[in-house]
Amino acid sequence: MDIKKGFIESVGNTPLIRINSLSDETGCEILGKAEFMNPGGSVKDRAAHYIIAEAEKNGLLKPGGTVVEGTAGNTGIGITHICNAKGYKAVIIIPETQSQEKIETLRTLGAEVKLVPAVPYTNPDNYVRVSERIAKETPNAIWANQFDNLANRKAHFETTGPEIWKQTDGKVDVWIASLGTGGTYSGTALYFKEKNPKIKCIVADPHGSGIYSFIKTGTISVEGSSITEGIGQGRITKNMEGMPVDDALRIDDKECLRILNILLKKDGLFMGGSVGINVAAAYQTAKTLGPGHTIVTVLCDGGARYQSKIYNEEFLKTKGLI
Questions:
Q1: How many CA atoms lie within 13 A of 295 on its CB side?
Q2: Which residue ranges does the record assign to the Tryptophan synthase beta chain-like PALP domain (predicted)?
Q3: Which of 4, 33, 44, 319 is catalytic?
Q4: Cβ-count burial of 208 within 10 angstroms (0-12 exposed, 13-18 middle, 19+ buried)?
Q5: Is the pLDDT of residue 1 over 90?
Q6: CB 68 within 8 A of CB 91
């Protein structure tokens, strides 16, 4: 019998899906790690699991304790699921600009949700800084600190990378992913480079993020904005330090939405915004490299968490994206 013992054992071992429409068009194998099939609905279940497990192992999180985190939504959802499964309380601080679907999901799961203004990391009212303060003020609590907690990228070094390696029989030419905390991209890239240094590791970045300019010029410069959530960054987090990067691509919202529409209408995949950035970058890379390459990216989460935004014509009109 093959039975998973509860939510936590169900995290990971997601399928690797061939994006048929774009693979057939380019002659490359464009593959997406189906992280939307994790039990909490996103790639962030892996980081949440490792962060809490490390805190328990190190004696920082005790029975009846509280996990506090600042999140764009998905890490908070993963944390709350795991807290429910283990008997902890979750306190989630989230920018008020994030999709209503994610905010309501957190409340439904039983998290204590605090909405804060969407301000830069340098502002003391930034959601990450507020979560740090609340964690310090709360008895028997830990701050998950997904951006700078290396348990995040360790999760991907120990699980995501090895799973993809096994699923492809080690035949990977390119790894592409966007960065938020940097955990998914960095942990997987570090694993791939250890297995085969010839694998190209490419960062996909939306407008409104400084990572593209940092990789290209060595300085962080933010240009424009994006309707995508949970990706893009204005600083180098600890999870990004030392990450292997061979190149970076900047993807705009129109191309992101075009790719999401193709995935939905031609491949039957209803995906979140960051997936549009990732797959668009994989598609561009396939066209640049030419046929015969295997390009792997990550399908971070599903589209249901963004129906009020990226799948809403009225919202898109306000952003000039129709």
A1: 30
A2: 10-301
A3: 44
A4: middle
A5: no
A6: yes
8 A C-beta contact, residue 21 and residue 262? yes
Contact 270, 25 (CB under 8 A): no
For strands 294-299 and 174-178, give the pairing. Answer: parallel
- At 97-111, the pLDDT tens digits run 999 999 999 999 999
∠ CA(306), CA(279), CA(104), 5° rounding? 15
Predicted confidence at residue 89, as pLDDT, reads 98
C-alpha span between 75 and 91 (Å, rounded): 12
Which residues have CB under 8 Å from 113's CB, separation 6+?
92, 94, 103, 106, 107
State which H helix or E strand residue 153 sits in: helix 151-155
Q: Are 299 and 30 in contact (CB under 8 A)?
A: no
Alpha helices by DSSP H, 218-272:
253-267
At residue 68, the 3 state secondary structure works out as: strand
| Mean pLDDT value of segment 238-252 | 98
Contact, 278 vs 255, CB < 8 A? no
In this structure, what token pair is assigned to residue 287? 């066209």
Q: Is 319 a catalytic residue?
A: no
Alpha-carbon Rg of the chain, whole angstroms?
19
- Residue type for position 66: T
Amino acid letter at 259? I
pLDDT at 253 over 90: yes
Q: How far apart are CA 97 and CA 301, in angstroms?
A: 18
> Other C-beta atoms within 10 Å of 159: how many?
20
DSSP letter, residue 66:
E
Backbone angles phi, psi at 238, to 5 degrees: -65, -30
Query: Residues 157, 133: contact at Cβ < 8 Å?
Result: no
Alpha-carbon distance of 13 to 33, in angstroms, equals: 10
- Looking up tokens 């290396």, which residue turns up? 150
Euclidean distance between CA atoms 78 and 214, whole angstroms? 30
Q: What is the DSSP string of 295-313?
A: EEEEE-BBGGGGTTTTT-H
